[in-house]
Write a sequence for this structure.
């Protein structure tokens, strides 16, 4: 039984904690949180042991009626491995803490690739993390692109990828983020950092990405062009391959799903926890082939798609299951696939 | 066992169907839907018998692989009572259908009050629906106001209510609704229709409402001023009374909940189905008393607050439980109260 | 000829500078700006002398090809009076600079009332600023409320004002401000600071305000209830009085103006510089009287309504014209009134 | 003096009318409008002769105090040429009216290409409209793409264009348009209709476009990839060529312009009527060259970019000036170029 500490219990951390909890081979040793807000209260009500990430704020937790199990240092000491899901940049600052305790750790995509030996995607490079002590689960956008690239690369070869990432301005709970009425080039320079990030997973891949930020909160949308090396028979061929990928959901035309609003509604109807969509969502109607040029559009639930990847990365680090074994166990326990 | 047919399986209909299903004294005889989209597929996967609301589109259902149980006429015939949750105005057109089958029915708040003998709110006037064949569950906004008015009225007497309703432009799945970048007086005339609608529940109440529509999808927000007849001791007195109401959630300051985004996040964390918040959400910090003048702000989850009301209204119509009995059974089965 | 320096050339500063320029009795001695962006370039192209607000960034101005006239210290030295339009809180830090040069100054509504002897609204208390060295032009929302309060107070007496302010989340150029999909109580506590701010202009007024922030950028919208001391004949009476106010625009129903989008479109069609609407915009259809209770809705162009107030405040400080003389000169030169 | 009637005086029509008015060789014979709203009132105040587009509504105009000059039939009779700027699809219905009067006409991009002999862009194919009686000025997006394609095609040759169009959901005055919180594939199928529309101007061009709709009102944003036939020296080479195009504005990095909000602010500061940006706005920092692959991002002011094109198209139809003569006259009279 792998004992996993979750340091940083926010959008990603709380989802990863819930996902770990339903695995047969791991358990949550505790979660660390900075402030005693509704999320911390939720952690306690969910039965997690709560640790203070910031010693100076222990009194605030007490005032809010939260029973602390200790400080983050104690959490790390009590864990076989840590998932660091603190805000971008804080993970790198935390690495010495994990080293001091000689505790392996996972970092998230908000960190620079240099934070860990390996940048991880379960579909693409599970094996590379098997000898590592530290791995970084790549960001939501990079995860979404990697899952698409992997099967295309294997089946047809890829000459070049060009993608535009129309990114949500903030998560639903981030009420201080904008823009309100603008579609912002972000970054203005091309290629955006997302392309190089995909290359941490596929070092040889020729990929150019462009980023924008728009006033939405629910999902990112990618418009993707892939020039394949070998021409597929037809778009149906591509569609079938994507359909057979376990972490890709292909949306049929008759479903009447036109965007993130209906996608989340669909996931909530299906009883998904928090309406989470762990899969890439590819519109079947958008899959188009012009010679060797493939086009498609996909939506990525930024809060959710990295969650199964974290679970798999934990097994890769600990080394007790192979990639296929881990992925299929994760899929089954979470209920991936509609 | 009350057999309930749900005619119109959209935002409200699907939630009411799920709520009925967990009641010990009722069951869903089937649901009627017009188009075979993801919501219809979801109905079938949830195990509901699906009926075609539109005979001309039966083939489309077949094409989408949905097994129809029949047409809406058959659904009505096979039900003891119908919940009509079709779009505004369609309910009134459906009334002759229910009359023809001599089947009692509930309508929703999008219909004119004249569609039924009684306009219903479980907290305020359960008893009035006990002899009725047809009742209308008042709209999300009216439900939210009625729940607030009832305890204030009982405890302090109400001289006058003045409320501004800052309404969400559309539900998350309604991608064709605006506005995008405007806060629209809607209606421009004052009082808005909401005040008179509250008076269908509290005929004697002096209430003026003003409506606006803003570019949000998650919840309505009400700013409310109530001039009470008798001055309460202090704001704490009010807060305690509201806290003790079963369908009002009071939000403490330390929770760090600043709006609908964090409220829904909180509800999803708590495992609520679809993140539904059946309760009025009143910010404790906003509860202010200036002499006999009470002020507060509340958020109303438009998709959810009428759901328990529908369940109670079904029992009021069928007459087998009293108001307090029904409300407490509904609360318990749904998990109302955090 | 009053020589006016404008310190802080942003949303408000650039509009005030343009407004001063068209006055026969004043001129702009120069404008001070921190960064050499498009706004600074625009200042130079408009023919204003540009001063550096920050000595450390002089080189950046040179690099962008902007010819600096000096530093802000020199601007103050060369001005009879300064309009400080720096960001909230910076004005107070600048006051010692103005005192050192013995130069009178105007501050904006983002500063605390204590920044100056007088909080100013041209319609309500012009005379109070006549002996002052420092005055604060109240905020956009307070200006909008004061203009409405003044004629009602004079004609009917006011027992109480209750207003909900549905505020725009950010100005059109503030792309980092949210919320994206939320209507936030802001502040959550009631009354919001706006009520007390109106009392800096009308010390005796009984007023309670509630604030919200929504995902719009163009205008604030106020829903206002005023309990009058003396009952007017009818709503028409009120409408005519408001129509006769020079800085209130009443919107007739046939105009088809439903919100800020159409209002700005209308102002741009009319050739208004920057589409600025200096007037309060009151929907005629919303003006409603229930006994002594008046209701109405108004939209306030946050970027523009304080501009004529600044011009008048300059004359009040310098003392060479009376309030009525100044207001009518300002109205005429700017083209106030449609 | 070419007498031009403008049929349909909305977003596009009113801008075209104003643009015609400042030309030395044409005048507006009148404008036709359906409803007597603020736009109609503005037309009259601007001194245009107003004609009723709908005979049944003449009384409404009278009630609103608008003096009608006649009906649309009379307007056509009194014009040498008509600019039809009615809503999408209405133009085609109007064509018989123009034919009956033997009056040449321009249509807008909302019509199918088949509405006229020529699809027009001033930079790309002015000459093709010289013998035509009817021409269609292509849509805002197609105009924006054509202006970019033309110089690249001439200087380097184009192998292929791939573009993602992140389109504004509605114009600022269209308060009933969404989405509120979604980035919608629109259309879901690829290529979107925009590519074929560009081919009405460049029949040989290999172009694939993808369309999305987002909750913004101010401008469209295009991410563009062009595979050139001949490799330019470097990105600077491209930038200089685009800079030298009269209807392309290149945005330097130091300007601090990050999106549509600041772009419009900049245009309003510069005194542009209605803040109109007739030029494509290309971010210099985004211009990137990877071998023969060019990338860039541009913003397109949907309400404005087709306006100079309409003016030029009028001259092409009437045949009295060459393309270069017309374009330079239009640029000069409107003040194109910052
Ligand atoms: N939100 C997304 O869409 C998303 C998607 C993929 C990856 N990520 C990455 O995941 C990481 C976490 O992002 P998030 O969105 O969950 O952030 P978040 O802000 O929602 O949560 C971060 C949590 O860390 C806590 N925290 C802050 N400082 C801390 C510290 N010093 N020590 C311990 N805990 C601390 C906060 O209280 C909060 O609970 C980032 O690297 C981010 O880039 C985020
Ligand atoms: N959505 C809300 O926020 C909300 C809140 C409270 C009350 N209501 C009221 O509830 C009612 C339903 O609203 P909704 O938001 O659920 O609408 P919806 O559009 O989400 O769902 C309506 C459903 O009825 C079906 N339908 C359409 N025409 C039909 C017909 N002729 N016969 C049978 N079914 C038909 C549609 O396919 C759809 O499934 C309305 O009266 C509305 O005013 C809605
Ligand atoms: N924008 C509005 O809606 C609005 C409405 C009414 C009143 N106000 C008030 O007007 C004031 C200015 O607001 P704004 O919206 O124009 O801000 P802004 O940010 O648009 O402009 C402020 C300007 O001041 C400059 N600046 C920053 N620090 C400076 C310093 N130390 N010295 C000199 N200049 C400096 C900035 O470069 C910028 O040009 C604030 O008090 C604000 O509360 C704003
Ligand atoms: N708005 C844009 O962003 C944009 C950009 C480029 C091209 N276009 C195209 O320009 C055309 C006009 O679009 P718009 O945005 O100006 O529309 P609009 O709705 O703003 O204006 C259309 C005008 O036509 C009038 N009208 C309606 N029916 C009429 C009829 N039967 N006869 C005469 N007048 C009638 C309306 O009253 C209105 O004044 C469309 O083809 C559109 O696709 C629009």
């Amino acid at each position: 039984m792998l004992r996993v500490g979750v340091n940083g219990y926010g959008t990603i951390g709380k989802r990863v904690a819930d996902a770990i909890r339903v695995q047969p081979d791991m358990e949550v040793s505790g979660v660390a949180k900075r402030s005693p807000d509704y999320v911390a209260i939720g952690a306690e009500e969910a039965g997690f042991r709560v640790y203070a990430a910031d010693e100076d704020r222990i009194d605030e937790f007490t005032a809010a009626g939260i029973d602390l199990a200790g400080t983050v240092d104690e959490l790390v000491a009590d864990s076989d491995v840590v998932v660091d899901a603190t805000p971008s940049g804080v993970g790198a600052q935390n690495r010495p803490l994990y080293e001091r305790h000689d505790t392996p750790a996972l970092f998230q995509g908000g960190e620079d690739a240099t934070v860990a030996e390996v940048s991880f995607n379960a579909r693409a490079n599970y094996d590379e993390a098997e000898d590592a002590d530290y791995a970084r689960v790549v960001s939501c956008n990079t995860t979404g692109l990697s899952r698409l690239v992997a099967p295309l690369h294997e089946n047809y070869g890829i000459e070049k990828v060009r993608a535009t990432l129309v990114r949500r301005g903030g998560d639903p709970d981030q009420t201080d983020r904008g823009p309100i009425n603008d579609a912002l080039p972000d970054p203005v320079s091309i290629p955006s950092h997302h392309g190089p990030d995909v290359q941490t997973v596929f070092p040889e891949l020729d990929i150019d990405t462009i980023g924008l930020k728009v006033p939405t909160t629910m999902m990112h949308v990618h418009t993707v062009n892939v020039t394949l090396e070998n021409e597929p028979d037809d778009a149906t061929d591509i569609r079938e391959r994507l359909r057979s990928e376990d972490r890709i959901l292909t949306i049929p035309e008759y479903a009447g799903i036109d965007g993130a609003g209906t996608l989340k509604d669909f996931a909530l109807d299906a009883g998904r926890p928090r309406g989470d969509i762990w899969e890439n969502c590819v519109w079947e109607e958008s899959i188009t082939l012009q010679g060797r040029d493939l086009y498609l559009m996909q939506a990525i639930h930024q809060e959710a798609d990295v969650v199964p990847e974290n679970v798999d990365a934990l097994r890769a680090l600990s080394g007790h299951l192979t990639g296929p074994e881990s992925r299929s166990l994760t899929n089954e326990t979470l209920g991936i696939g509609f």
